[in-house]
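User: Please write out a complete single-protein record containing the residue sequence and its fold in token form, without commentary.

AI:
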Amino acid sequence: MKSAKFWGSLGVVSAAALTLVACGKGGNSANTDDTKQASKFSPVVPNKSTKEGGTVKQAIETDTPFTGIFASELTTTQTDVDVMEPGLEGLFDVDDDYRINDKGPATMKLDRKNNTITIKVKKGVKWSDGKQVVAKDLEFSYEIMANKATKSQRYTSSIASIKGMKEYHDGKAKTISGLEMPDGENGRKLIIHYDKLKPGMYNSGNGYFSEYAQPYHYLKNVPFSKLESSDQIRKKPMFFGPYKVDKVVRGQSVTWSPNKYYWRGKPKLNKVICQVVSTKSASQAIKSQKFDVARVINSQWKQVKDTKDVNFVAKIPLEYSYLGFKVGKWDAKKGKNVMNPNAKMNNKSLRKAIAYAMNISQATKRYTGGLTFQIPTLIPAQFGDYFDKDAKGYDYNLKKANELLDKAGYKKKGKWRVQPNGKPLKIKILVSEGSDPSKEPITQNYIQQWHKIGLNVSLINNRLIEFNSYVDKVQNDDPEIDMFTGAWSLSSEPSPNDLYGEGAPFDMTRFVTPENTKLLNAIDSEKAFDHKYRVEQFHKWQEYMNEEAYCIPMTNSYQITAVNGKITGYSVKPSDLNDKWFKVAYVK
């Protein structure tokens, strides 16, 4: 998904396109045969003549039932997004650099003189019940995000920069004054008013406006407080993409059939089935061709790479895993993160020592042959010159880790170190079950490394935790959490504001400093329309984040997908993502 950040499911391990991934992946890329092979894969399957009909089964690899929140404004997990793929279409198509173009369901125009953005839906873009997507559907997306009753994680400081959003969010206004529908609710145009425009607004996933719509006529009678749990969202969601929902088996599968009102034309397939499969069964499912589309779990690559009649496509996605330290809480009333200066983990030397003690490169090379690899910063290399190629990151260095702890007063008392005040130091880490069986041994490996430097680190409940419980604990700042591993599936606009800003619910560490706020504001400032200036600010931010070590960059991965050799049209190129399922078909 190109326009949000999401919790997601990386092997070891947006608002805008933002999703939590159930941590298992990982750049200092290991130069192995597997890495070389993956780097040569095409992002698209061979293009061939198509025929009508057929059913395509897509595997959803997870050991946890998907939550089934089928609304972009409310969902926070990559698994839900994966399940929604056949029907979920964003308002905008993009090029391969994620820059918004005019080829999608809607067009976008920036007016820097008047500080407005105009979004216009094309005539003929219809919901699966045949009704035209209208201006009110666009506006409704913002109301869902901003209304406190929905508890949407999408309400961030970025989206709040729209005029009138804060007043609506705080219950002081019944409408959002900065959203103008010049042709009325049933028109096709929405004008968004800001105090200032931002340089990232040309790119999908920027977080300053919604790239989705919701069918107001279908949802208007559902109270905001009940929207997330409603049948209209959970059982019978409505989309304007190529396929419509036929059946939902809660947490397990979704069956799709063609949306006969789809604006680009008639989809080729009779049916698409997205079905959950356990990570332990994933490689066998690929080898037996139980599914037509299935992501390869990197630690299982050697088991599947010689499978016949399969095309492998690959990319390095906009994702990363990280180690976060809990140093505060989210204040829902004030809508901001509040840091606790006395938090156990609010000691830079302790955080850095923990980072230096992690043998990330060795661990990922052992389990994935280099398909997962260590990264040096929180800005992925795919973002070009915004990525600081000179960033050092945290390489494995036990000597430096011990020196940092010694100088900071974390003295050894027997086997374990104690806090500088002499009190015992016990550190609890929360880690979720992931989409890669190698996650548990890699996690145990890191715990052993921390034990080597005298830190008494242990898993909360002495085990990896089920993903939905993990999300609940991290989001609600469970007091037992000292540190946690997480992962982000990123939006395609590189600004980190929605992940690390003071007003960002997704800043799960809850660290807030004046310097961090200053750097984030500079990245998204008026001056940052100058590309050179913006690049400089990105580099300063990465240097600052590595120095403060509140969030340690860990890994990214090659993401390989196995596709039935009889299928054409499947692609992982950014420019193909919005209409991918419209193009997927069987060959003649």
Q: What stands out?
A: Residues 571 and 577 are 7 Å apart (CA to CA). The two ends are 29 Å apart (CA to CA). The longest helix spans residues 531-548. The mean pLDDT is 92.
